[in-house]
């Protein structure tokens, strides 16, 4: 170091930094204190929180009143299963993009050609359905046609990209606002399958994944999949290709290369990817508030139940809040150093 | 470079993810487009072709322009607060002081708090006009009339809560970037006679441009979709954004068609923003 | 064992042709060095032999067996990489054992082989360390150990010494040569350093822009380069070219005198190496010339000197850079 820092400067910085740190943390601290106070003490201001009695009763009341354990179980199931499921998809994908990249797009089409392909496919499929005797004006036919129109060219387009385009496209799916997907997902999830109930050829009358793990887990997985893939990709990118090539020279099969070499080397990256995803899934609130209310409702929903304006239950609200955030915050504290790198999605070293 | 065998396996390894994301990106969109043109309310059996009426009604909703403005105002002000504040905090944390590890942990904590919790804690424990801490502080300093945060300045209140959650993110990303700044550069610039201001202007700021871009990109994705903070503080009527408006079309008006149309409008707006963002970001990230 | 034959081997990445077509026969037990400037395709050629890249067209045979489409691990070759490519999460012992485990060798046999390799390479005390705890030279030895335990028919070295410091490099060079004498296995060695090529090789393959420019023993290349490129690349300091690049003469083949001779010039700089002195001479219309003088040479900057090419040591080239006689 070229500059010698005087002790006085260091003391000044210490005071400023600690002040700001404590201010940032203060709302959490305040909540934590209130959680251990009696209801009347909690909102008596000013209070000397050192002298007012401490109590654990709020936690018991919260559990008794709103069954905290059910919600935390749901949160854990949704967050963990969706993260593991996401890894199963993302590890091979990230491996593929990092070590077997596709350098050239296999299809180079102009916009007009895409349009012609899309409309052409729809026309041919429509003709085919008509020949089969379908009524092209009913909802099932229109829906089916719409899916063909969208999925066929979309799949063509997606699967023909080169690796760097694929990566950017994957991240761009994260730009899609949930508001746009809310109605379709709501309809797909809903009782009696509002979308599918007229389809006739499949009996879906018992089908209902609203407010269930069958809906929430895949949804959460898809929501975070682009992030998992990106993060893993940036971690894999740092592993020298030569090491994998050495394994290949040593007679390792692709499977051995993945399990014996790549995965052990990428463990730190995989762990921090998992942690970030756990945090994102744990704290997700748009979908959980809109799609769950009882069976698969996680902690974010559990807390929102305390927003009702009737009566001031500061202590219970605080206790519930602490119960909802404590597990993930502790995880976050212990992993924050690894997390920060993950949070930049590999864009900052 | 990989061999053709590896490349073939690679395509298969990538396929499940691509397929899943293709379905995720396009199927809901297709369904939304379909329903956006239907008259379809869950409370009535009268469904049918509705043309552009859903779009018309959504845009002419009394809340539409207000919520559009709120969306933009929320994103821009939180970005401004977190980036300016984050840069300041990052520079501060980069200085030598005692207990850096603990201060770091204290500072990042708000990022781990779920939005529903932070909203209720801020609204009730801190900003409540009667029992909140802020009101108590105001009274302590002799104010006769305390500020009712969510009553008089709902948007500002939401902005404060959201900024509190995202400030740690910006600060820590920028701190990480600052710590990678070459110390020799600092020495060299001192040798060249640069003061702290020009050191910041010509060395630090250019060095931070890339991480700042990343912060803008990531935060925008999340800030456009702020929902829980508005929903659980019940200020949707005053400080709602587009995300909230669409969700309330579904939850309160149960109007599928109009909600789908609103969702599509939100998609279009997000895409405009993302095109704009990708332009800037692409230049800075150079992928 | 260990005969490698390349037949019209071609490699292109899309439009970019890296190797237009290479024919080469590597004899059993031979130490062959691929040398050339960076980007000449020497590493690509090695990777094609290893099987880490696919051929665009052509054929590779090892001991008469067509291995063009054989997986890298099944070609009976071992490779030592520039960055050593050790598995950082495994101990030295497990690094060396890895190829044997992949071959499903029984554990007792693996242990015996590791013990033997470790003894040969002075690694016995380090077997339980991780690669990160080793010095550059030790890592290099682990990489070699991992290669020799499989008793392959041939070894491939991809610039294995370029990450070592100068003193260590000379040592490792000798160790690899010793290894070659002990194992009598075919070795293909890639380097951009012509000194390594000259000192180690039985035969040298000089590559230029993906083409095999010349193949021969070090002395053949030194004495009879068949092109301007080879002449300029082999030998240090570089050969002098005069008369519009049609005549070449090595610095050590110019006799100097302060009185008379064929070419006149003025000394600009002199480098004293102790054993030799290299004079950088302004040769007037012949341009810049390098001359080797004895270590005791008294010529210094500003001296006018005469230079005379030794008899039969001139190299003649045509306009295309081909050697003529």
In a few lines, what is going on in this structure?
The complex is a heterotrimer of chains A (349), B (287) and C (325). Helices cover 75% and strands 1% of the residues of chain B.
Describe the structure.
- The complex is a heterotrimer of chains A (349), B (287) and C (325).
- Chain A has 349 residues and is mainly alpha-helical.
- Chain A has helices at residues 7-35, 39-42, 57-66, 68-99, 111-131, 139-159, 163-173, 178-189, 213-237, 241-249, 254-283, 286-291, 299-304, 314-343.
- Chain A is built from 14 helices and no strands.
- Chain A is globular.
- The model of chain A has no long low-confidence stretch (mean pLDDT 83).
- With 287 residues, chain B is mainly α.
- In chain B, 75% of the residues lie in helices and 1% in strands.
- Chain B is built from 14 helices and two strands, in the order H-E-E-H-H-H-H-H-H-H-H-H-H-H-H-H.
- In chain B, a hairpin with an 8-residue loop joins strand 1 (38-39) and strand 2.
- The two termini of chain B are 18 Å apart.
- The relative contact order of chain C is 0.13.
- Helices cover 26% and strands 33% of the residues of chain C.
- The interface between A and C is medium-sized, with 19 and 26 residues.
- What is the CATH homologous superfamily assignment of chain B? MetI-like
| CATH architecture descriptor text of the largest domain in chain A | Orthogonal Bundle
Largest sheet properties of chain A:
none
Strand order of the largest sheet of chain B: 1-2
Rounded to the nearest angstrom, the distance between the terminal CA atoms of chain B is 18 Å
As for the CATH topology of the largest domain in chain A, it is MetI-like fold
So what's the oligomer here?
Answer: heterotrimer
Q: Domains counted in the coordinates of chain A: how many?
A: 3
Major β-sheet annotation of chain B: 2 strands, antiparallel
What's the alpha carbon Rg of chain A, rounded to whole Å? Answer: 26 Å
